[in-house]
């Protein structure tokens, strides 16, 4: 399909340069209670969802050890430290005299209140903070440290700088002070009450979402379907047809193990499941069980074989000799292992075409220059394995906690100000409620994922074995449609492009102007959405983007609909009942496993 093909009235093409993605908010979202602070929280946090990287579990000890590099920098470069201290003192003199021109980044929402500029004391306090932060960073950059140690020192310095920002103090945040007066002290009382609750119930971190309005199966995850198969590791959901005819070849989805599947079924207007139903595609979705310590031995091989069970059930129910498959994020990592296993057994005919959403199969490119990459050392990987082996699982809550400290301004201090200083409730938003509904990883699966970091098996044949079969992705022959997001910091789009390259130059790569989850939850209707689409026939991603040509306005969903329909076989009358005699419905979707916490 041409990259400029117009696939529906929601998709048009125009020549414009790429730009950073914006978070999509519907009219319903904009009506949430609260002020602009909460709207900003929603937009920021939506791009920071956990759906991402179960490959590495950074420990608090890893962060603490990096603080030593700051002392090491001073010890190895005392003259440079003195020079930058002098620069700071000089700037402080200019601040006291009112002659300093230092100012915050206009995009830094922490200091958007006009009082930071109009009030002499607040302006001086802010400038002192910015001057100290600037000189500290310049000193670390000039220090005589190896690159990795320097990067870790810079990261710890940023943590400290973010923590001591004057916007985080109730005595120096002008918005908080103004609200304290306006509410007669009630904002402070609410903030103290919420702080106490989080200390007791959220391990000291501010809550990111009010999940109480959302009930799985009632107002989210409501697409009609049935559980048609269940074993100890997963349930297989078949979703009901909404069209009189359906295509013969079904689609089987493999979602991430670190989150629950219903990110693709939050509400009807942004449900990818409903979009697939309305496309006439017979859809089956795996709902993974939330493991406990007694399931510690579940491995990547076990999960790959689960996909084979799901495929066989879908084939039996539909009568189709093969299926199409979809893998999202770590669910795509499992799908790749399964495809390699099929190829090694000579059973590759079971899967005809594949879709890969925000999935990086080349492990180094998933980390690259990211913060997680700074801590991906052999010793850190060994320690992460030992920790989850001892506990039996890697907790989603533990992952979310450490992930928050990777981006503290977005995931901690924003909420500190909103919940405690302003006394606002955290926002009630479906994506954040889903993100808060975390799951666990079995210790063995976590260990297997960590091994992928070191072995990079999908790019290095023979380094991974699944159920006794050596994996060689060059033997996998499937059609491929791969989606990446321009602002995805969890699975960078350049790494997603590498996934497309694994499947040859005929693979279709789509680049959406969104972040990790928003690249997936991207229904038509947002006037700010656009994407690029072209065959993955360039050696590197930047060359691909330069040659991708015209950008397509709107969501990529209609573009994908045409792609999958063309590869789903003949149209036939939709079944009146779900399941089959061999696999009768067990209970309505969303099933039982999605309810387990």
From TrEMBL:
InterPro entries: AB_hydrolase_fold, PHA/PHB_synthase, PhaC_N. The keyword RNA-binding does not apply. Residues 1-34 are annotated as: Disordered. GO terms for biological process: poly-hydroxybutyrate biosynthetic process. This is Alpha/beta fold hydrolase. Keywords: Acyltransferase, Hydrolase, Transferase. Residues 1-13 have a biased composition (Low complexity). The keyword Acyltransferase applies. Residues 14-27 have a biased composition (Basic residues). SUPFAM superfamilies: alpha/beta-Hydrolases. Residues 107-276 form the Poly-beta-hydroxybutyrate polymerase N-terminal domain. GO terms for molecular function: acyltransferase activity; hydrolase activity. It holds the Pfam family PhaC_N.
């Amino acid at each position: 399909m041409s990259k400029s093909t117009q696939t529906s009235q929601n998709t048009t093409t125009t020549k414009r340069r790429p730009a950073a993605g914006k978070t999509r908010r519907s009219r319903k979202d904009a009506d949430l209670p609260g002020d602009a602070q909460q709207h900003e929280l929603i937009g920021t946090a939506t791009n920071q969802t956990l759906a991402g990287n179960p490959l590495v579990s950074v420990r608090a000890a890893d962060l603490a050890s990096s603080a030593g590099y700051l002392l090491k920098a001073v010890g190895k470069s005392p003259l440079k430290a003195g020079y930058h201290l002098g620069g700071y003192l000089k700037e402080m003199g200019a601040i006291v005299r009112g002659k300093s021109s230092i100012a915050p980044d206009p995009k830094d929402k922490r200091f958007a209140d006009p009082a930071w500029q109009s009030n002499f004391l607040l302006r001086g306090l802010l400038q002192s903070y910015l001057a100290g932060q600037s000189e500290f960073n310049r000193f670390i950059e000039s220090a005589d440290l190896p690159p990795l140690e320097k990067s870790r020192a810079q990261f710890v310095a940023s943590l400290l700088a973010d923590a001591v920002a004057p916007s985080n103090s109730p005595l120096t945040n002008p918005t908080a002070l103004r609200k304290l007066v306006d509410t007669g002290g009630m904002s402070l009382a609410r903030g103290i009450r919420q702080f106490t609750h989080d200390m007791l119930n959220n391990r000291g971190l501010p809550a990111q979402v009010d999940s109480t309005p959302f009930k799985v199966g009632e107002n989210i995850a409501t697409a009609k379907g049935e559980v048609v198969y269940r074993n100890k590791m997963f349930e297989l959901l078949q979703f009901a047809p909404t069209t009189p005819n359906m295509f013969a070849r079904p689609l089987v989805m493999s979602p991430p193990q670190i989150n629950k599947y219903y990110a693709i079924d939050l509400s009807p207007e942004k449900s990818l499941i409903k979009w697939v139903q309305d496309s006439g595609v017979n859809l089956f979705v795996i709902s993974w069980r939330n493991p406990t310590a007694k399931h510690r031995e579940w491995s990547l091989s076990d999960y790959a074989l689960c996909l084979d069970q799901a495929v066989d059930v879908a084939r039996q129910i539909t009568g189709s000799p093969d299926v199409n498959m979809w893998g999202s994020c770590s669910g795509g990592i499992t799908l790749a292992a399964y495809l390699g296993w099929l190829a090694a057994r000579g059973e590759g005919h079971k899967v005809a075409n594949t879709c890969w959403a925000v999935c990086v199969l080349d492990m180094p490119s998933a980390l690259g220059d990211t913060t997680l990459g700074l801590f991906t050392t052999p010793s850190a990987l060994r320690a992460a394995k030992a920790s989850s082996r001892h506990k039996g699982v890697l907790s989603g809550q533990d992952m979310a906690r450490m992930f928050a400290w990777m981006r503290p301004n977005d995931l901690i201090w924003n909420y500190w100000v909103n919940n405690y200083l302003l006394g606002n409730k955290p926002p009630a938003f479906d994506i954040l409620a889903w993100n808060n509904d975390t799951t666990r990883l079995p210790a063995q699966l976590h260990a297997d994922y960590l091994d992928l970091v070191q072995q990079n098996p999908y790019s290095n044949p023979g380094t991974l074995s699944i159920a006794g079969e050596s994996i060689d992705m060059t033997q996998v022959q499937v059609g491929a449609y791969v989606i990446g997001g321009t602002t995805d910091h969890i699975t960078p789009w350049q790494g997603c492009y590498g996934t497309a390259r694994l499947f040859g130059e005929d693979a279709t790569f789509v680049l959406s102007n969104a972040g990790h989850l928003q690249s997936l939850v991207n229904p038509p209707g947002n006037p700010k959405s656009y994407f690029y689409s072209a065959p993955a026939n360039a050696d590197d991603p930047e060359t691909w983007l330069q040659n991708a040509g015209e950008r397509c306005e709107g969501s990529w969903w209609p573009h994908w609909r045409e792609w999958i329909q063309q590869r789903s076989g003949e149209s036939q009358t939709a079944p009146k009942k779900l399941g089959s005699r061999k696999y009768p419905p067990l209970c309505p979707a969303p099933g039982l496993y999605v309810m387990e916490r």
